[in-house]
Amino acid sequence: MARVNVIIPAYNEELSIGKVVAAIPALVEDVIVVNNNSTDRTAETASLAGATVLLEPKPGYGHACLKGIAYVAAKPVDTRPDIIVFLDGDFSDYPHEMPLLLEPILSGAVEMVIGSRVLGKREAGSLLPQQLFGNWLATKLLHLLYGVKYTDLGPFRAIKLDTLLALNMQDRTYGWTVEMQAKAAKRNIRSVEVPVSYRKRIGVSKVSGTIKGSVLAGYKIIFTIFRYI
Question: Whole-model pTM?
Answer without folding.
Answer: 0.94
